[in-house]
Amino acid sequence: MEWGLAVLMNNKWGFCAENLVNFTQKLIQIPSLSTQEQEIAKAVAGEMKKLNYDEVYIDEKNNVVGTIKGVGGGPTLLFNGHIDHAGVGNMKEPFSGKILDGTKYGHPGPVIYGRGASDMKAAIAAMVYAAGAIKEQGISLRGDVLVTAVAMEEMAYGEGISYLLDNGLRADFAVSGEATNLNVYVGHRGKIEFKIITKGKTSHAGFPAGGVNAIFLMNKFLNKLQEKYSLPNHQFLGKASYTVIDIAASPGRLTPIVPDHCEIILDRRFLPEETPEMLAEHIWKIIGEVKNEDPLFDADVELVKVFPAMLTDPGGKIVTAVKEARRMVMGDEGEIGAWYFGVDGTFIERAGIPCAGFGPGNEHYAHTPEDHVPVDHVVTAAKVYSQLIIKLCC
Fold first, then answer.
1. Torsion-angle region of residue 152: left (phi > 0), alpha (psi -120 to 50) or beta?
2. What does the pLDDT look like over 132-191, one tens digit per residue?
3. Which residue in 377, 382, 383, 388 sits closest to 117, CA to CA?
4. Where are the beta strands (DSSP E) in 200-260?
5. Model pTM?
6. Which CATH class is domain 190-307?
7. CATH classification of 5-188+309-393, choosing from 3.40.50.300, 3.30.70.20, 3.40.630.10, 3.30.950.30?
């Protein structure tokens, strides 16, 4: 045991912290890009069976569902996380699962390094072991505990969790284990992508005055966007935002020609009170203002993708229960916050299941070459999850 791991092993929570850490490492060591989750699904299901879950199954999407059954008469608590990870890019040893000194990351203890450590294989491990600990200790539950480790989350369509919900998955309360730095989160902004297309007229590049350059038209739109687009703010979710994430023009540079087509993808993060229709109307208004200034300006707008916003009642029962479980384990309730990215909890919330966020790791390391999770976060998260089960389901 390196980097002081031994101090984390003594606990009264019904699980072996060393086994939990080893399982986290094992999950990180299994490559599991979206649509390639077969092997990791088998590993999660196998660990659930070792921990004597009452029911375990893998569906055709490679979602894993494990159940600890109660005797009845109590609420069902759902824990949710995903088993796929983002691309590794130029990350070194992305599937090593090494335990490193956390000093370089500003953490005083050991950390587990690798792709998916913070997003979110550590949380999957903590959830699996937390529910298993309740079973191991023989604690009598009234309500059921469900642990779902879903596939295809990184594709940002909610395909894995939606498949479960569409096929009858139900609960009274839920927790998303996406990284929250061990604070309690109540949601996130929504994400919408618009394709903006400007339409010009081709001419020979040696005689640009004979055409209308679609790239220059797009530049006018972008300048007006930055000048005129005001953004609302939210108490918990923060300020709405926009950015351009892609740009292309045609016919292209193979021949010297003024482009008559330019398109961008505009990423707009929106608040729960905003709708796609409202946001499209704002874009068209900006297009109208540019057209008033330049009669040659011509543009179109297409809706590409919508990922719903999420906002759970900060005073609701699940948020209050997670805060209380955190206080009992960590000494205080922590801070209410929100993710800057979207999570599958939004689909759970939209299905009528109140969902709060609590997970190990710092979300700002997700998808980065420094992806890691502190060891003590993993163990603490499992303790909080166990305490939450006792609080809601006993």
1. left
2. 999 999 999 999 999 999 999 999 889 999 999 999 999 999 999 999 999 999 999 999
3. 377
4. 233-234, 238-239, 241-250
5. 0.90
6. alpha beta
7. 3.40.630.10
